[in-house]
Amino acid sequence: MSRETDPSPEQASTLVFLRVRPPAAPTGADAGATPGDEAGADLPPPGQRGPWSMRHPVLYPWVYIWFVLLAALDIICTWKIISLGGSEANWLADIVIRHGGVVGTSAYKFGLTVIIILVCEFVGRRRYTTGRRLAKTAVWITCIPVFVALVQMMIVLRHGHDPH
C-alpha cells in the first residue's frame, strides 16, 4: 500500500485497529486516582477476556505448570514416605490411599488440581489480578507438603528412623 492509494477494507480495518488512542489524562476528581483505580483495570488482557477459547485456553499457564509439577511431587513424596513406613496426615487423603492405591490417589490429587485451576480461571476471567493471586497462593500452599515430605525423607534416609 502506498500513500497515494486508498487502503483496501481489510487494510483499513487493520489500520483502525492499530490506531488506538491513548487514554485521556484524568481531570477533576479523577486526577488523583492511581492507574489501577479506573474501571476495568483488573480485567484480563483483551485477547483473554470472555469465555475460554483455543487461542488462550488458560490465563496463567506458567503458574499452572508449577502447580501441576508440585502436585505430582506431592504424590511421589507421599508414596515414598508410605514405603518408608510413614503415613498420610490428611484423613481424607489417607482413606483414598488405603482404598484407591496409587491410581486412586493420583485421580484424587489431579481432580483437586483441576478444580483449583478451574476456580482460578473463573475468578481470573472476572478479576484478573485476584485470579493470579489465587493461583500463586495455590502453588505456595502446595509447596508446604512437598517441602515437609522432602525433609522427612532426608531425616529417615540420613538417620534411619521413623520421622514421626
Major pleated sheet = none
Percent of residues in β-strands: under 5%
Spans where pLDDT lies below 50 across 5 or more residues:
12-22, 33-37
Q: Quickly give the structural class.
A: mainly alpha
Task: Work out the radius of gyration.
Answer: 25 Å
Nearest-integer average pLDDT = 77
Individual helix count: 4
What general outline do the C-alpha atoms trace? elongated
Looking at how many chains there are and whether they match, the oligomeric state comes to single chain
Share of helix, binned:
55-70%
Topology as H/E string? HHHH
Compute the separation of the termini in Å. Answer: 75 Å
- Strand tally is 0
Structure overview:
The chain is mostly helical and 164 residues long. The protein has a domain of 96 residues. It has four helices and no strands. The longest helix has 36 residues. The radius of gyration is 25 Å and the shape is elongated. The N and C termini lie far apart (75 Å).
